[in-house]
Amino acid sequence: MILPIYIYGSSVLREVAQDIDPATYPNLKELIENMFETMVEADGVGLAAPQVGLPIRLFCIDLEPVAKEVPKGMPLRQVFINAEIYERSEEEVRMNEGCLSLPGLNEDVVRPAKIRIRYLDETLAPRDEEFDGFPARVIQHEYDHIDGMVFTDRVAPIRKNLIKSKLTNFTKGKYRAAYRCKLAK
Question: Annotated active-site positions, please?
Answer without folding.
Answer: 142
